Task: structure prediction
Amino acid sequence: MIELTGRVAVITGASRGLGAAMASHFLTRGLNVAACARTRPDYDDSEHSLSRSVDVTNASAVDAFCDEVAGHFGHIDLWINNAGLLAPIGPLRDNDPAEFARHIEVNVLGVFHGSGAYIRHIHAHGGEGVLINISSGAARSAYAGWSAYCSGKAAVDRMSEAIALEEGTHGVRVHSVAPGVIDTDMQSLIRASTPEQFPRVDKFLKLKETDSFSAPDLVAERLLDLAFDPEHYKDDVLVTLPPQSR
Ligand code: NAP
Result:
């Protein structure tokens, strides 16, 4: 394993689920971790951790968080835009426009705000950095009942590819990563869907029955490989992690 002590990582959407698991794993690997979500992640501020309540749809709050992290830890080596939501679920014809708009605000504009803050940090302070946007298989294959989620994650993929073209010569590597299926609150929400809302709900019920999920700490370790292992420096922008079973 690569030595990562003292590296600095930011994770959005770290109050629960994959984000919280990544934050814990990164701390055990010796990184300094700044975590945020609307619900303040459950870490005391210390030499190695910082947590704040930040809504990623609030551009100035995300910028202020980035500045505070840089003031606390210095250069930020890795920024992970992980915050996201799934709703609305169901055929587009039944989706509430305001709920669809809120979805795009979090899953697309939230990534825009985090990416912008981080890239400006690298430009202002120099050095190199890695930006990882958490995407989904739903960015790359459509699912009936998930038009908002598919649209938002596809936008994250294209946004990441555009950033790679813009920032590749300015020290920022970017990846948009489909992490596999991890048993979080988002999966509980998927399993609670009716077949009318989400015709492929059976597939996800079966994953639960057979406990066929990726282990979040192994997903976290793969993301560290992607960010810090020189063998991965030339990897494509779009990454799909294979299942990370124990
Ligand atoms: P989750 O358990 O529902 O957690 C979502 C996280 O995002 C929470 O910490 C939540 O905290 C935060 N969040 C939501 N809205 C936010 C906002 N406006 N501002 C700041 N934080 C916000 O979901 P998860 O399964 O861990 O998903 C994490 C990421 O992985 C998402 O981008 C998801 O699309 C992606 N993903 C998950 C899976 C999977 O199988 N679980 C598969 C593919 C991709 P608060 O509510 O406190 O703000």
